[in-house]
Each structure stands twice: as structure tokens, then as C-alpha cells.
Amino acid sequence: MALDQEQQPGPAAEPAASPDAANPPPPTAPGSQPLDWMNDTLEWGIRARAGKRGLTMRDLNLGSYGAVPDASSDMSRRPRGAFPIPGVPRTDLYSLSAKVDLWADNAVDLYEEAIQRRWMAHAEVAWDELPPRPYDGELAMRQLCTELAQQASIEIDVIGQWLHRMNYAYHEVKTFLATELFDAGRHYSAFRQRALLNDGALGLESAAQFNRRLLETRAGWTETALFLYVVRGTLTLLLYRYGEAYAGQPAEKYLFRRCLEDKARHLAYGMAHLKYAVANQEPGFGLGLNNLMRGVERDLVQDLSDPVLWEALAIIIGGSVANIAAGMAVVRNLQQQYIEQYLSRMQWVGIGKTEANLTPGLAAYLRRPEASPA
Amino acid sequence: MSAHGAAGSDSPIDSVDSIDSPIVFPSVEWFQRLQELVNNDPEFRRLGSIDAVMGVKVGERVFVITFEAFECSGVKEGTEYDLIDADFFLEMTVEQWRDLVTNTRENNGADLSHTLNTLDLMITGGISDNATGDQLRADIFFRVNQSLQHFFDTSAKLETVFEP
Fold first, then answer.
1. How far separated are the first and last CA of chain A, in Å rounded?
2. Exposure winner among A124, A141, A355, A362, fewest CB in 10 A?
């Protein structure tokens, strides 16, 4: 259904101009005319009921208020289902006004999950129970946290520059992405806190090729989502997981664990959207995404060849510079897992990415001796 | 000290205060006892809603634990076939489960090397998977990881005995 149709009372809507006992006539202002605007609605009779999770966005998706249009030409910012007023000028020119360009069926529930599982890094992480590691280990942790903070800050900018282009007909997606922005802000802040703790300092900025791809992609949100979630998000989730596994203190473990929860939720939207887009766009869309990845993968190879992040991780895992070789063996497992998961996630969303059409520089990570446990 | 005290320091169990009599692991009763404890635990609720069907495979035995909204809503013993319907399942040998439960009891919650995510990375092949290869459902293990950790950490309150 097009949103234009939704601007008129739909067939499922109860008559707006037939007040009954439940919906009495509008009040009249003292000495004035009846307050006619109180009669203006697209649909009466919505009876949302709170469930075990409280009154959720899904609970409110009833009648026309829950009708998600395939496309919308509405360029206002009215909440979906609000009564349209003739003559209101456009407030934006949304470039993402088709459902296929941004939708994910799970967005409505992921929004609630994000809200209900929110946490506060400044208060919940026991920062005062985080003594510094030995000097080399502390420097390595600061470097890891610096890179994670940068990944989060880029996520903020990437989503921020697409969010305002998304039509309000899809408020499930817009509100979910708003939570992701908030999560990314929290991650940025939390990893800076960890880096600067204990008379600390920030480390080096990250390699930049893939960051530029993320920030400068103009093809569409779906293409950006492919980069942000399947390529970058898969790596970030792994880094959080290894951060949790090799945390030196319970408080550090808690920090990484809450962040990995958030990141996995972000991936759930990204993957569901990509699967939806590949299934519902024109035939060949998935092939196009696969072809698009050739250049992206070359950038990724270049970034992955930068040793700083891997050396820092190897020191954290090994426990010291003296044990960096042992740590690097685990890092190689992480790198292999990353490429394996990149392939499996691409295939899950319907993009035919295989080792055979993977850029050789990435395929090389798969051809190492059988990985041992981390 | 963090505002939420033990939660932030990753030691969610206030104190080891054994409940009732020794109880056998693995058993439906053992998981039901955990279910009762977390459903009466404000900290578990504070962590947020959790919607997941989790399989637990202990050697050859299978248990199905259902979480809904803010509570653990179901515990039952099942079969391998039930794992197909689970969002994810945790699989370890009897000895590995015994090690986890013992470690949790001794440390008032899993120590640094026994958290669920750590075990998933450290044990060959991992411990968490989706039976049908559904990546989206497999990832629920990560999305609600803190609640799952709290659930198993709560077993520190149980006086567990193991099958011979």
C-alpha cells in the first residue's frame, strides 16, 4: 500500500466522523466553536494491549497505524497514521522512500530489545576495579580501545548521514537506527574511558581505506549496510568477543560483553535488511552487490595488512611483548574466523560470495594451517 | 564501586547462599531451580528482556530452556530433534559442563576463563551453534549474552552434585 492511500481513512478504519459512546463528540470551547480538530483522525478504535514486555511498538502496530507501505511519497515528518493537513509544505525530500531500500522485519523488535537492554558504561563498569596491566599490556589495550572508539565514531557518522534520508513511514527502522547511534556513542565513550584510565593515553588512529568506503558510499543504504554490518560489524563483533575472552579483570570483561551484545543486535538488523533487499529488489541485485565487493575487498586487504591492531591484540592475548608470538598465533585464528564469518554472512543474506570469488588477499587468510582454539 | 555494584564487576551473584539440598546436574530439577532463582532476581530483570529458546546439550542429554520477556518461562528435557527449533544450543562434554558448574560454584560466578563467550572461543569448535545454520538465530547467543551469563552464574547458589 502506498502511503498516499493511507492519508485517507482506509477500509479497515472506523468512520472518523461518527462518534459513539466510546468516542463522544468533540468538546466545545467556552463561547467558541466546537473543537473540530478533535474529530480529525484516520482511524478510531485502536485497542492496544500491553503484554509481558510492556506496551511495545509492535503492540501498537494495529490497523492503519501498523500498515507499512511499499513506497511513500509523503515528504512530511508526520508520525505514521497522523492526520494529514492540506497545504503543509514538504519538510524533506527523502531519498529512501521505498520499503525495499531500508526495511527489516525484525527492526520493530530490535528497537525494543535495544531500549530494554540499555546499559550505562560510566556507572555500570567498575572502573575503579580496573588496575593497569603491566606497561606493555596496558599500551596494547589502549591501542585496541583507540581503534574500537574510532570504529564507533565512524558508525555514528555513517548512520547519521543516512538516517535523515529515510522516510518516516518506516519508523521501526528509523527508531532502531537511532538506538544504534546511541549505542555507538556509548561505545565510543566507553573505549576512550578505558584507554584514558589509569593515567592512560590514546593510541594510533586506524588504517583508513575502508573507513573512507563506509563514509563516502553514495550507491544506497543497502550498499552501505553491507559494508557497515557484514564487513565492519563482523570484525568489530569478533574484536569485542576476543576482548571479553582476554580481559584482565571482571570489569573489563563486563565492558566488552555488553558491547558485544549491542554489536550482535546491530548485525541482526543489517543482515535482515540485506536479506530482504536481495530477495525483493530487481533480479541481479545480489550479483551486483557481489561485484561491488571486489574493490571493497582490495581496500580491506590493505587495511588488514596494517600491523598495529594485530600486534596490540597479540600482546594482550600473549600477556606481554615477550609472548607476542604466542599471541599472534591466536590473532591468526581471529583473522581466519573473520573471513570465514564474512563469507557465511554474505551467503546467509543471499549474496553468492565464496572463496572462489574472494579477493586473493582475503582468501589467503583461509589457507592457513588448521586453526586451533583461541 | 560501580552504581550497580556486583553487576558491573561481572560478579552478579551477591553471595553464595546455598538453596535447599544438593541437586543433581544435569537434571530438569537443576534447571528449574535456576529458573526459580532468576525469576525472583531483580538483577536478572534489570538486564532487560530476553527472548530466546536455548538448547543445552550435556553429553547425550538435551535440555530446552525458554526465555520470554523478563523471565525464564520454561525448562524441559528434550531430544536432539528439539535442538532444531532452538535459537541456539550450548554443547559441551559432561566433563566440560562439570568443570563449568564447579568453577562457577567455587568463584561465586564463572571466573575469567569460564564465561560463556570465552568457552565458545577457547573450546575447539565452540560451544554455541544453531542446528540449522541460521546465522541470525545463532547470533541471539551474543545479543543476550549478559543475561545468559547471569543465568549460569546464578548456579553458584546451588549445591550441585554430579552423576557418578
1. 50
2. A355
Per-residue CA distances from A119 to A123, A156, B46, B96, B146 (Å) = 9, 18, 9, 31, 11
Alpha-carbon distance B11 to nearest alpha carbon in chain A (angstroms):
7
For A12-31, give one letter per residue: b (16+ CB within 10 A) or e.
Answer: ebbeeeeeeeebeeeeeeee
CB pairs under 8 A between A and B: 118
In a domain, A63, yes or no: no
Are residues B70 and A53, on separate chains, in Cβ contact within 8 Å? yes
Q: Which chain A residues touch B11 with a CB distance below 8 Å? A: 250
Is A265 in Cβ contact with B1 (below 8 Å)? Answer: no
CB atoms within 10 A of CB A149: 23
Question: Minimal Cα distance from A252: which residue of B?
Answer: B9
Neighbour count for residue B20 (Cβ, 10 Å) = 9
Nine-digit cell string for A364? 589467503
pLDDT for B61-90, tens place per residue? 999 999 999 999 999 999 999 999 999 999
End-to-end CA distance of chain B: 42
CB contact under 8 A, B139 and A348: no
Kindly list the residues from chain B whose CB atom is less than 8 angstroms away from the CB atom of residue A348. 134-136
**Tens-digit pLDDT profile for residues A254-266:** 999 999 999 999 9
Q: What is the CATH number of the domain that holds A353?
A: 1.10.620.20
Q: Which domain holds residue A254?
A: 106-366
Query: Tens digits of per-residue pLDDT, A198-210?
Result: 888 899 998 888 9
**Distance (Å, rounded) from C-alpha A314 to C-alpha A139?**
12
Domains of chain B by range and CATH?
19-162 (3.30.1050.10)
What's the pTM? 0.91
Cell for A135?
606497561
Which chain B residue has its CA at the smallest distance from A374's CA? B122
